[in-house]
Design a protein that fits this description.
Blueprint (H helix, E strand, L loop, with lengths): L48 H4 L6 H11 L3 H14 L4 H11 L4 H14 L4 H13 L3 H14 L4 H14 L2 H14 L4 H13 L3 H14 L4 H13 L3 H14 L3 H13 L3 H14 L4 H13 L3 H14 L6 H16 L14
Helix pairs in contact: 2-3, 3-4, 4-5, 5-6, 6-7, 6-8, 7-8, 8-9, 8-10, 9-10, 10-11, 10-12, 11-12, 12-13, 12-14, 13-14, 14-15, 15-16, 16-17, 17-18
Amino acid sequence: MIQGFARSVVVVSVLSFAAGCGGGPEPVTEPPKTPPTLPPSMKLGGGEGPKAEARKPSADFARGKAALEQGNEPGARAAFEAAIAKDANDPDAHAYLGAMVEKNDKAAAEKHYRAALATVPGHEAATLNLSALLMDANKLDEAIEALKASAEKHGDSAALKLNLGLALAAKGDEPGATAVLGEAVKLAPKDPMGHLTFGQVLGKWKKNDAAKEELLKAEKLANGDVGVLASVGFELKNIGAFADCVRVLDGTIDKKDAAELRTYRALCKLGAQDKPGAQADLEAAVAKDPKYGPAHFYLGGRHAEAGKWKEVVTSYETYLKLEPDGPMRKAAEERIKLAKEKQKGGAKTGPAPAPKKK
Protein backbone atom coordinates (compact mmCIF):
# COMPACT_ATOMS: atom_id res chain seq x y z
CA MET A 1 0.00 0.00 0.00
CA ILE A 2 1.08 3.59 -0.41
CA GLN A 3 2.46 4.61 2.92
CA GLY A 4 3.40 8.09 3.97
CA PHE A 5 4.05 6.86 7.48
CA ALA A 6 7.28 4.99 7.95
CA ARG A 7 9.75 3.43 10.29
CA SER A 8 9.38 2.67 13.96
CA VAL A 9 11.74 4.21 16.46
CA VAL A 10 12.63 1.58 19.06
CA VAL A 11 13.42 2.84 22.53
CA VAL A 12 15.34 0.63 24.96
CA SER A 13 13.27 -0.66 27.87
CA VAL A 14 14.44 0.01 31.42
CA LEU A 15 12.78 -3.02 33.00
CA SER A 16 15.36 -5.11 34.82
CA PHE A 17 15.84 -8.86 34.72
CA ALA A 18 14.95 -10.89 37.79
CA ALA A 19 17.36 -10.30 40.64
CA GLY A 20 17.95 -14.00 41.17
CA CYS A 21 19.51 -14.50 37.73
CA GLY A 22 21.41 -11.24 37.33
CA GLY A 23 22.07 -9.52 34.04
CA GLY A 24 21.44 -6.09 32.56
CA PRO A 25 18.24 -4.38 31.46
CA GLU A 26 15.52 -6.36 29.76
CA PRO A 27 15.75 -6.11 25.97
CA VAL A 28 12.80 -4.29 24.49
CA THR A 29 10.01 -6.24 22.85
CA GLU A 30 9.44 -5.56 19.20
CA PRO A 31 6.87 -2.94 18.17
CA PRO A 32 3.35 -4.21 17.42
CA LYS A 33 3.42 -6.70 14.55
CA THR A 34 0.04 -5.56 13.22
CA PRO A 35 0.51 -1.92 12.21
CA PRO A 36 -2.17 0.63 12.97
CA THR A 37 -4.77 1.22 10.29
CA LEU A 38 -3.49 4.08 8.16
CA PRO A 39 -5.71 7.16 8.06
CA PRO A 40 -7.30 8.10 4.69
CA SER A 41 -4.56 10.57 3.76
CA MET A 42 -1.98 7.80 3.98
CA LYS A 43 -3.72 4.76 2.51
CA LEU A 44 -3.24 3.59 -1.04
CA GLY A 45 -4.56 6.49 -3.02
CA GLY A 46 -3.80 9.13 -0.42
CA GLY A 47 -2.31 12.30 -1.90
CA GLU A 48 -3.03 10.99 -5.39
CA GLY A 49 -1.83 12.88 -8.42
CA PRO A 50 -5.12 13.84 -10.09
CA LYS A 51 -6.39 15.77 -7.10
CA ALA A 52 -3.07 17.16 -5.95
CA GLU A 53 -1.85 18.13 -9.41
CA ALA A 54 -5.25 19.33 -10.71
CA ARG A 55 -5.06 16.98 -13.68
CA LYS A 56 -7.68 14.70 -15.19
CA PRO A 57 -6.76 11.06 -14.59
CA SER A 58 -6.64 8.65 -17.50
CA ALA A 59 -9.60 6.29 -17.93
CA ASP A 60 -7.41 3.26 -17.20
CA PHE A 61 -6.03 4.83 -14.04
CA ALA A 62 -9.56 5.68 -12.82
CA ARG A 63 -10.61 2.09 -13.55
CA GLY A 64 -7.60 0.76 -11.65
CA LYS A 65 -8.24 2.96 -8.65
CA ALA A 66 -11.89 1.88 -8.54
CA ALA A 67 -10.81 -1.78 -8.69
CA LEU A 68 -8.36 -1.19 -5.87
CA GLU A 69 -11.03 0.38 -3.70
CA GLN A 70 -13.11 -2.74 -4.23
CA GLY A 71 -10.22 -4.97 -3.15
CA ASN A 72 -9.55 -6.26 -6.66
CA GLU A 73 -5.76 -5.96 -6.74
CA PRO A 74 -5.19 -8.07 -9.90
CA GLY A 75 -7.72 -5.96 -11.77
CA ALA A 76 -6.16 -2.75 -10.45
CA ARG A 77 -2.68 -3.80 -11.47
CA ALA A 78 -3.86 -4.75 -14.96
CA ALA A 79 -5.53 -1.36 -15.34
CA PHE A 80 -2.45 0.57 -14.19
CA GLU A 81 -0.26 -1.44 -16.55
CA ALA A 82 -2.71 -0.69 -19.38
CA ALA A 83 -2.51 3.01 -18.54
CA ILE A 84 1.28 2.95 -18.76
CA ALA A 85 1.17 0.95 -22.01
CA LYS A 86 -0.93 3.74 -23.55
CA ASP A 87 1.06 6.56 -21.94
CA ALA A 88 4.50 5.65 -20.64
CA ASN A 89 4.55 8.89 -18.66
CA ASP A 90 1.24 8.46 -16.79
CA PRO A 91 2.45 9.63 -13.34
CA ASP A 92 -0.49 8.40 -11.31
CA ALA A 93 -0.41 4.90 -12.78
CA HIS A 94 3.33 4.76 -12.07
CA ALA A 95 2.83 5.89 -8.46
CA TYR A 96 0.11 3.33 -7.79
CA LEU A 97 1.77 0.48 -9.63
CA GLY A 98 4.99 1.17 -7.73
CA ALA A 99 3.12 0.80 -4.46
CA MET A 100 1.65 -2.50 -5.60
CA VAL A 101 5.00 -4.07 -6.57
CA GLU A 102 7.05 -2.62 -3.71
CA LYS A 103 6.69 -5.58 -1.37
CA ASN A 104 8.27 -8.01 -3.83
CA ASP A 105 10.43 -5.72 -5.95
CA LYS A 106 11.68 -2.52 -4.36
CA ALA A 107 13.91 -1.69 -7.33
CA ALA A 108 10.94 -1.81 -9.71
CA ALA A 109 8.88 0.25 -7.28
CA GLU A 110 11.58 2.91 -7.13
CA LYS A 111 11.65 3.11 -10.95
CA HIS A 112 7.91 3.67 -11.01
CA TYR A 113 8.09 6.40 -8.34
CA ARG A 114 10.90 8.16 -10.18
CA ALA A 115 9.00 7.89 -13.45
CA ALA A 116 6.04 9.66 -11.84
CA LEU A 117 8.31 12.38 -10.48
CA ALA A 118 10.04 12.83 -13.83
CA THR A 119 6.66 13.73 -15.37
CA VAL A 120 5.23 15.61 -12.40
CA PRO A 121 7.98 16.97 -10.10
CA GLY A 122 6.81 16.85 -6.51
CA HIS A 123 4.07 14.26 -7.19
CA GLU A 124 2.80 13.67 -3.67
CA ALA A 125 2.07 9.94 -3.61
CA ALA A 126 5.28 9.09 -5.47
CA THR A 127 7.32 11.28 -3.13
CA LEU A 128 5.84 9.71 -0.01
CA ASN A 129 6.71 6.21 -1.10
CA LEU A 130 10.07 7.02 -2.65
CA SER A 131 11.10 8.82 0.54
CA ALA A 132 10.18 5.76 2.60
CA LEU A 133 12.36 3.58 0.38
CA LEU A 134 15.22 6.04 0.62
CA MET A 135 14.95 6.16 4.41
CA ASP A 136 15.04 2.37 4.46
CA ALA A 137 18.30 2.55 2.53
CA ASN A 138 19.61 5.26 4.88
CA LYS A 139 19.73 7.74 1.99
CA LEU A 140 18.47 10.46 4.27
CA ASP A 141 19.76 13.49 2.38
CA GLU A 142 18.09 12.32 -0.82
CA ALA A 143 14.84 11.61 1.02
CA ILE A 144 14.88 15.05 2.67
CA GLU A 145 15.55 16.78 -0.65
CA ALA A 146 12.64 15.00 -2.34
CA LEU A 147 10.27 15.68 0.54
CA LYS A 148 11.16 19.37 0.76
CA ALA A 149 10.61 19.78 -2.98
CA SER A 150 7.20 18.14 -2.80
CA ALA A 151 6.22 20.03 0.36
CA GLU A 152 6.80 23.30 -1.48
CA LYS A 153 4.06 22.28 -3.91
CA HIS A 154 1.78 20.64 -1.33
CA GLY A 155 2.18 22.76 1.76
CA ASP A 156 -1.00 21.39 3.31
CA SER A 157 0.13 17.75 3.18
CA ALA A 158 0.50 16.38 6.70
CA ALA A 159 1.81 13.09 5.29
CA LEU A 160 4.74 14.82 3.57
CA LYS A 161 5.55 16.74 6.76
CA LEU A 162 5.39 13.53 8.75
CA ASN A 163 7.90 11.76 6.52
CA LEU A 164 10.11 14.84 6.40
CA GLY A 165 10.10 15.03 10.18
CA LEU A 166 11.06 11.35 10.43
CA ALA A 167 13.89 11.81 7.95
CA LEU A 168 15.21 14.84 9.84
CA ALA A 169 14.95 12.91 13.11
CA ALA A 170 16.93 10.02 11.63
CA LYS A 171 19.50 12.57 10.49
CA GLY A 172 19.82 13.82 14.07
CA ASP A 173 18.26 17.22 13.45
CA GLU A 174 16.16 17.45 16.61
CA PRO A 175 15.09 21.11 16.26
CA GLY A 176 14.21 20.70 12.58
CA ALA A 177 12.33 17.45 13.12
CA THR A 178 10.42 18.84 16.10
CA ALA A 179 9.31 21.88 14.10
CA VAL A 180 8.20 19.86 11.07
CA LEU A 181 6.40 17.19 13.08
CA GLY A 182 4.66 19.97 15.00
CA GLU A 183 3.46 21.37 11.66
CA ALA A 184 2.24 17.91 10.63
CA VAL A 185 -0.01 17.47 13.66
CA LYS A 186 -1.37 21.00 13.23
CA LEU A 187 -2.26 20.23 9.60
CA ALA A 188 -4.06 17.04 10.62
CA PRO A 189 -5.03 17.49 14.28
CA LYS A 190 -7.48 14.59 14.20
CA ASP A 191 -5.04 12.10 12.67
CA PRO A 192 -3.96 9.67 15.43
CA MET A 193 -0.94 8.50 13.43
CA GLY A 194 0.55 11.98 13.37
CA HIS A 195 0.35 12.32 17.15
CA LEU A 196 1.59 8.75 17.61
CA THR A 197 4.61 9.38 15.38
CA PHE A 198 5.42 12.69 17.05
CA GLY A 199 5.13 11.09 20.48
CA GLN A 200 7.35 8.23 19.43
CA VAL A 201 10.09 10.57 18.24
CA LEU A 202 9.83 12.79 21.31
CA GLY A 203 10.18 9.68 23.45
CA LYS A 204 13.37 8.76 21.66
CA TRP A 205 14.76 12.14 22.65
CA LYS A 206 13.69 11.60 26.28
CA LYS A 207 11.15 14.44 26.09
CA ASN A 208 8.83 12.22 28.08
CA ASP A 209 6.22 14.77 29.17
CA ALA A 210 5.75 16.07 25.63
CA ALA A 211 5.79 12.51 24.28
CA LYS A 212 3.09 11.44 26.73
CA GLU A 213 0.91 14.39 25.72
CA GLU A 214 1.07 13.41 22.04
CA LEU A 215 0.53 9.72 22.75
CA LEU A 216 -2.57 10.40 24.82
CA LYS A 217 -3.93 12.55 21.98
CA ALA A 218 -3.41 9.59 19.65
CA GLU A 219 -5.29 7.39 22.11
CA LYS A 220 -8.29 9.72 22.16
CA LEU A 221 -8.37 9.88 18.36
CA ALA A 222 -7.85 6.15 17.78
CA ASN A 223 -11.57 5.45 17.50
CA GLY A 224 -11.08 1.91 18.75
CA ASP A 225 -8.32 1.03 16.26
CA VAL A 226 -6.50 -1.82 18.03
CA GLY A 227 -3.30 -1.20 16.05
CA VAL A 228 -3.13 2.44 17.10
CA LEU A 229 -3.98 1.63 20.72
CA ALA A 230 -1.38 -1.16 20.86
CA SER A 231 1.25 1.21 19.52
CA VAL A 232 0.26 3.91 22.00
CA GLY A 233 0.59 1.43 24.86
CA PHE A 234 3.95 0.25 23.54
CA GLU A 235 5.32 3.80 23.39
CA LEU A 236 3.91 4.70 26.82
CA LYS A 237 5.83 1.70 28.15
CA ASN A 238 9.01 2.99 26.53
CA ILE A 239 8.77 6.38 28.27
CA GLY A 240 7.98 4.84 31.64
CA ALA A 241 4.32 5.95 31.77
CA PHE A 242 3.36 2.56 33.16
CA ALA A 243 0.01 3.42 34.73
CA ASP A 244 -1.24 4.98 31.49
CA CYS A 245 0.17 2.06 29.53
CA VAL A 246 -1.79 -0.43 31.65
CA ARG A 247 -4.97 1.64 31.33
CA VAL A 248 -4.68 1.90 27.53
CA LEU A 249 -3.92 -1.80 27.13
CA ASP A 250 -6.77 -2.76 29.47
CA GLY A 251 -9.17 -1.24 26.97
CA THR A 252 -7.29 -2.65 23.99
CA ILE A 253 -7.34 -6.20 25.38
CA ASP A 254 -11.08 -5.84 25.99
CA LYS A 255 -11.36 -5.37 22.23
CA LYS A 256 -8.81 -8.00 21.21
CA ASP A 257 -7.25 -10.37 23.71
CA ALA A 258 -3.93 -11.28 22.11
CA ALA A 259 -0.66 -12.70 23.48
CA GLU A 260 1.26 -9.72 22.10
CA LEU A 261 -0.93 -7.23 23.98
CA ARG A 262 -0.83 -9.29 27.18
CA THR A 263 2.97 -9.26 27.01
CA TYR A 264 3.12 -5.49 26.61
CA ARG A 265 0.76 -5.05 29.53
CA ALA A 266 2.83 -7.43 31.64
CA LEU A 267 5.90 -5.28 31.10
CA CYS A 268 3.97 -2.17 32.09
CA LYS A 269 2.70 -3.95 35.19
CA LEU A 270 6.29 -4.83 36.07
CA GLY A 271 7.19 -1.19 35.70
CA ALA A 272 4.30 -0.34 38.03
CA GLN A 273 5.57 -2.98 40.51
CA ASP A 274 2.53 -5.22 39.97
CA LYS A 275 4.48 -8.47 39.77
CA PRO A 276 1.52 -10.83 40.31
CA GLY A 277 -0.40 -9.06 37.58
CA ALA A 278 2.55 -9.30 35.22
CA GLN A 279 2.95 -13.01 35.92
CA ALA A 280 -0.75 -13.61 35.28
CA ASP A 281 -0.61 -11.75 31.97
CA LEU A 282 2.45 -13.66 30.78
CA GLU A 283 0.96 -17.01 31.71
CA ALA A 284 -2.24 -16.04 29.89
CA ALA A 285 -0.21 -14.96 26.86
CA VAL A 286 1.62 -18.27 26.68
CA ALA A 287 -1.65 -20.18 27.04
CA LYS A 288 -3.37 -18.08 24.38
CA ASP A 289 -0.55 -18.31 21.83
CA PRO A 290 2.20 -20.82 22.68
CA LYS A 291 4.11 -19.73 19.57
CA TYR A 292 4.51 -16.08 20.63
CA GLY A 293 8.17 -16.03 21.64
CA PRO A 294 8.48 -12.81 23.71
CA ALA A 295 5.88 -14.05 26.21
CA HIS A 296 8.10 -17.07 26.97
CA PHE A 297 11.15 -14.82 27.27
CA TYR A 298 9.61 -12.52 29.85
CA LEU A 299 7.96 -15.39 31.70
CA GLY A 300 11.49 -16.74 32.15
CA GLY A 301 12.29 -13.60 34.12
CA ARG A 302 9.34 -14.17 36.43
CA HIS A 303 10.45 -17.76 37.04
CA ALA A 304 13.97 -16.53 37.79
CA GLU A 305 12.72 -14.16 40.44
CA ALA A 306 10.96 -17.12 42.09
CA GLY A 307 14.13 -19.20 41.87
CA LYS A 308 12.48 -21.77 39.59
CA TRP A 309 15.58 -22.50 37.54
CA LYS A 310 14.19 -25.48 35.63
CA GLU A 311 11.26 -23.36 34.45
CA VAL A 312 13.68 -20.54 33.61
CA VAL A 313 15.60 -22.83 31.27
CA THR A 314 12.41 -24.14 29.69
CA SER A 315 11.05 -20.63 29.04
CA TYR A 316 14.22 -19.29 27.43
CA GLU A 317 14.80 -22.46 25.41
CA THR A 318 11.24 -22.20 24.12
CA TYR A 319 11.90 -18.61 23.10
CA LEU A 320 15.04 -19.65 21.21
CA LYS A 321 13.19 -22.47 19.48
CA LEU A 322 10.47 -20.08 18.35
CA GLU A 323 12.78 -17.18 17.46
CA PRO A 324 16.30 -18.57 16.86
CA ASP A 325 17.40 -15.26 15.37
CA GLY A 326 15.21 -13.06 17.55
CA PRO A 327 16.39 -9.75 19.02
CA MET A 328 16.68 -11.27 22.51
CA ARG A 329 18.60 -14.38 21.46
CA LYS A 330 21.86 -13.43 23.16
CA ALA A 331 20.14 -12.50 26.42
CA ALA A 332 18.22 -15.78 26.41
CA GLU A 333 21.39 -17.81 25.85
CA GLU A 334 23.21 -16.02 28.67
CA ARG A 335 20.31 -16.52 31.07
CA ILE A 336 19.99 -20.22 30.26
CA LYS A 337 23.67 -20.59 31.15
CA LEU A 338 23.19 -18.73 34.44
CA ALA A 339 20.10 -20.75 35.34
CA LYS A 340 21.88 -24.04 34.65
CA GLU A 341 24.75 -22.93 36.88
CA LYS A 342 22.20 -22.23 39.62
CA GLN A 343 20.78 -25.74 39.14
CA LYS A 344 24.21 -27.35 39.35
CA GLY A 345 24.96 -25.34 42.47
CA GLY A 346 21.95 -26.89 44.16
CA ALA A 347 19.98 -23.68 44.39
CA LYS A 348 16.72 -24.24 46.22
CA THR A 349 13.44 -23.45 44.60
CA GLY A 350 11.98 -20.24 45.88
CA PRO A 351 12.63 -16.52 45.75
CA ALA A 352 16.21 -15.35 45.58
CA PRO A 353 17.46 -13.97 48.93
CA ALA A 354 17.38 -10.23 49.35
CA PRO A 355 20.78 -8.53 49.20
CA LYS A 356 22.35 -7.83 52.58
CA LYS A 357 22.33 -4.27 53.76
CA LYS A 358 25.71 -2.61 54.00
